[in-house]
């Protein structure tokens, strides 16, 4: 079912595990895909969609079990970073995308890192709030800071208080807290958090540190300096092969979602990255 608004279309793509809701601005520009974080939705990228449309073909989707996409038919198989990456690639192939730059936030950034090894049509990757970590719980822990609500990231059943806390912390305590942000958290299939987190900590997980450090395509990293979830010194200290501008951007005064909290600061950096392709 396609709906259009100011030339922006929303339509569903059927994939192996779920029906995926896609927002597509159309146009002839380079396709840019925006991938949201854990228990969020594509609408979180409103400021980037408005900023880039016309110059770029902006695509945003809801992951399985999130937003307007369906819950996964096989939750234990579908809800992992590698499986999410395969689902995203399946969507892009069905749309007919030939080259792509991806911006991924938090979980979306982890999916982008997975795609470095899986999707040669991706020519650039920007990540935000996403520590590239090696396999194993001890290595994963290096990339993150213990925070009050970090445990919610893998919790299946949310109370109303959990919804409020997770929504507030992930978009930033000082960011605009619009109703759709809380609705997205409440809507998310709790198994998506549970199985994703279990797989992320398992020995079967991907070595995303190696992928980030050896990537031949430009990797841009833009974080909020106040992000309560990530270990900035860990991310800043990795040995990247092709880090855009040779530096990790740590934006002052913003938290886990700088693109939402401070789009006026974030968007020009994203545009400068995209304009290199």
TrEMBL record:
Superkingdom, taxonomy of origin: Bacteria
GO cellular component term of the entry, any: membrane
Domain AB hydrolase-1: 32-267
GO molecular function: hydrolase activity
Classification via InterPro entries: AB_hydrolase_1, AB_hydrolase_fold, AB_hydrolase_sf
Keyword line: Hydrolase
Name of the molecule in the record: Epoxide hydrolase EphB
Organism name: Xenorhabdus mauleonii
Origin organism lineage: Bacteria, Pseudomonadati, Pseudomonadota, Gammaproteobacteria, Enterobacterales
């Amino acid at each position: 079912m396609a709906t259009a608004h100011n030339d922006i279309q929303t339509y569903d793509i059927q994939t192996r595990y779920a029906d995926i809701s896609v927002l597509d601005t159309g146009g002839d520009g380079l396709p840019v895909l925006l991938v949201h974080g854990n228990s969020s939705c594509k609408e979180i990228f409103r400021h980037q969609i408005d900023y880039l449309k016309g110059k770029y073909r902006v695509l945003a989707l809801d992951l399985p079990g999130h937003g307007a996409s369906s819950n996964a038919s096989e939750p234990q198989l579908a809800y992992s970073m590698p499986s999410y990456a395969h689902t995203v690639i399946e969507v892009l192939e069905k749309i007919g995308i030939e080259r792509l730059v991806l911006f991924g936030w938090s979980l979306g950034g982890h999916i982008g890192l997975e795609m470095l090894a899986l999707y040669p049509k991706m020519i650039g990757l920007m990540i935000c709030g996403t520590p590239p970590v090696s396999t194993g719980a001890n290595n994963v822990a290096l990339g993150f800071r213990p925070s009050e609500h970090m445990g919610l990231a893998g919790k299946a059943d949310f109370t109303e208080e959990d919804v409020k806390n997770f929504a507030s912390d992930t978009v930033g305590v000082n960011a605009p807290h619009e109703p759709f942000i809380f609705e997205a958290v409440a809507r998310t299939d709790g198994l998506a958090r549970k199985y994703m987190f279990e797989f992320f900590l398992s020995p079967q997980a991907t070595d995303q540190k190696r992928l980030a450090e050896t990537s031949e395509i430009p990797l841009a990293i833009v974080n909020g300096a106040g992000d309560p979830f990530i270990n900035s010194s860990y991310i800043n200290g990795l040995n990247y092969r092709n880090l855009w501008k040779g530096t990790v951007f740590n934006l002052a005064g913003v938290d886990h979602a700088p693109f939402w909290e401070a789009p006026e600061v974030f968007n020009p950096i994203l545009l400068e990255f995209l304009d290199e392709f």
